[in-house]
Write a structure and sequence with these properties.
Belongs to the Gfo/Idh/MocA family. It holds the Pfam family GFO_IDH_MocA. This is Gfo/Idh/MocA-like oxidoreductase N-terminal domain-containing protein. It comes from Nelumbo nucifera. The chain has 362 residues and is of the alpha/beta class. It has 2 domains: 134 residues, NAD(P)-binding Rossmann-like Domain (Rossmann fold, 3-Layer(aba) Sandwich), CATH 3.40.50; 195 residues, Dihydrodipicolinate Reductase, domain 2, CATH 3.30.360.10. Helices cover 34% and strands 26% of the residues. The protein has 11 helices and 17 strands. It is globular. The N and C termini lie far apart (46 Å). 44% of the residues are buried. The mean pLDDT is 96.
Length: 362
């Protein structure tokens, strides 16, 4: 796919593993281009560029500040450890750079509010790096969930995001270090679970959040595995649970149950394939006589796409930036609000764990 005449110029600050995936996405997006990469040393930046086959025209910087000071950089992608997000995201916004920030967005809501306030006051677009929201399968699922006849009223939800790691990971990875990513599995994988549940509930916050009494923490107090339940009261009553872990085999499950139908998928965060994705949907299923089987099997709904979901994320972010840059538009408040609600609920889960699995009212 050919590039537009005036693509949004991205700078990346930090050479984390996830930056490899997003830099590829930037190169594939028709309205974006990778303009600069910054690391803590010029040697690291050059090695990252060489390892990933970057074009020779990409600028290399030996500090994050140099990327932010480059007047040609329109937007920055920030894949730094969570503890550094406030410092660098705020600085980027103050230098009028649009901010694509890796999740989890912050260590707590107060820190995220600081970031969002900086973005708002400087008129720059904010978006977090939750890629699956941009997949066309997600839009198709929303379409089917919104069909009152097929799906009915949403009643319960379950989500999981887990993977099993090596001893080296538990000793050295930043995601188990309290000074770098203190939220551990809750921030890394739980962010997706919470986000999926909120997405299914149309971002209506639950009334009560209560962590399940089975959290696993390392010696430094970082969460390695946990679960939680949510409850929505009133006429729109429903429940949800999730489990996130660094200790279990890979899972990316999402199950949604309505009064008339149900929807399931096992790869909601990273689809099994780049070029297509599917989910199972069934409506009106009943047991046969004597309960010896079912009257219906789920239908596999297949969705195809031309660009990877992370490229669609970059493309949408660049589209919003272009509107602000060239049409005097305003930042889209949808994306910071999604991040804010996800962070708010994640804070409540953490608080519930810290209080001995007590219920937290929102």
């Amino acid at each position: 796919m050919s590039k537009s005449n005036n693509p949004i110029r991205f700078g990346i600050i930090g050479c984390a593993v996830i930056a490899r995936k997003v830099s590829r996405a930037i190169n594939l997006a028709p309205n974006a281009t990778l303009y600069a990469i910054g690391s803590r040393s010029i040697e690291k930046a050059k090695k990252f560029a060489a390892d990933n086959g970057f074009c020779e025209t990409v600028k290399m910087y030996g500090s994050y500040n140099e990327v932010l000071d480059d007047p040609c950089v329109d937007a920055v992608y920030v894949p730094l450890p969570t503890s550094l997000h406030v410092q660098w995201a705020v600085m980027a916004a103050e230098k009028k750079k649009h901010v694509l920030l890796e999740k989890p967005t912050a260590l707590n809501l107060a820190d995220l509010e600081h970031i969002l306030k900086a973005c708002d006051s400087n008129g720059v677009q904010f978006m977090d790096g939750t890629m699956w929201l941009h997949h066309p399968r997600t839009a198709k699922m929303r379409e089917m969930l919104s069909d009152a006849q097929l799906f009915g009223q949403l009643k319960s939800m379950y989500s999981s995001s887990t993977f099993s790691e090596t001893l080296e990971f538990f000793e050295n990875n930043i995601r188990v270090k309290p000074d770098l990513d203190a939220l551990g599995a809750l921030g890394d994988t739980g962010w997706y679970c919470i986000g999926a549940i909120l997405w299914a509930a149309n971002y209506k916050l639950p009334n009560t959040v209560m962590a399940l009494p089975a959290a696993n923490l390392n010696a430094a107090g970082v969460i390695l595995a946990c679960g939680c339940s949510f409850h929505w009261a009133g006429e729109d009553s429903k429940v949800a649970t999730f489990h996130c872990s660094f200790l279990s085999h890979e899972s990316m499950d999402l199950a949604l149950y309505g009064s008339n139908g149900s929807l399931h998928l096992k790869d909601f965060i990273i689809p099994y394939q780049e070029s297509s994705a599917s989910f199972d949907f069934v409506s009106g299923a009943k047991f046969k006589e004597l309960h010896i089987g079912w009257n219906l099997k789920p239908t596999k709904v297949q969705v195809f796409l031309e660009l990877p979901q992370e490229t669609l994320m970059v493309q949408e972010f660049a589209r919003l930036v272009n509107i602000i840059k060239n049409s005097a538009g305003h930042p889209d408040s949808k994306w910071p609000e999604i991040s804010r609600k996800t962070q708010l609920v994640m804070d409540a889960v953490k608080k519930s764990i810290e209080l001995g699995f007590k219920p937290i009212d929102l």
